[in-house]
Amino acid sequence: MRVVTIPCLKDNFAYLVIDGTTAAVVDPGEAAPVEAALAREGVTLAAIWATHHHADHVGGAAELMAARPGIDFVIGTHDAAKVPAATRQLEDGGEVTLGTLRARAIHNPGHTRGAISYVVDDAVFTGDTLFGAGCGRLFEGDAATMHASLAKLAALPPETRVYFGHEYTASNLAFAAAVEPDNVDVAARAEALVQAAGTASTPSTIALERATNPFLRSTAPDVVIAAMNRGVSGDAISVFGAIRAWKDAFRA
User: Fold this and answer.
1) Catalytic pick from 27, 53, 57, 147?
2) Residue 37: phi, psi to the nearest 5?
């Protein structure tokens, strides 16, 4: 498997998942950069895999499909009603194939009701559920729902590569430092990002997210203290909810 990162729109990422000369595209926010990547890589597009229904993740699908009648357009079952052009729906644990590759869906409600991540070999494509050092806003779910969804992703093997939907990592790390100012892993990751200026921060790894992402650290002592200082109890879901609410209003 090869993965090619495709910057789209203002700060979105789409991805080509390539097996030989065939590819699926994850979250094509617009068509033109995808078409350019396909031509550059010399591969044929066989499928569209969407993580959720938001326009900045599926906005290029219609144009890509018009040029390739009959290709699959896959989305999570609970988001399918909002994307009529989708040709296939995936439940939690459902699978799609691309050549020799097999992609398994993890249902991750919270950002949207039907958000899914795709696990392919040693990689996971998380859309707007899990970001570099962050997570998506709770547009169609509550703190308990998103906390459970992130726990599913955090349980993947630590070496799993995390391909996320937006270049938010720098601002997310600034927030992580506010939550855990003594977290040396957060500081090191922020410094590495500065040193790699101009390079996309995707992919991360599950191990790195466990160490630096406050939304995966709702039982870490300093995160609990930070949340309790904002007036909540110390259970993991209350902590997560307080940290998410804080992030919604945070300005670095």
Assistant:
1) 57
2) -65, -40
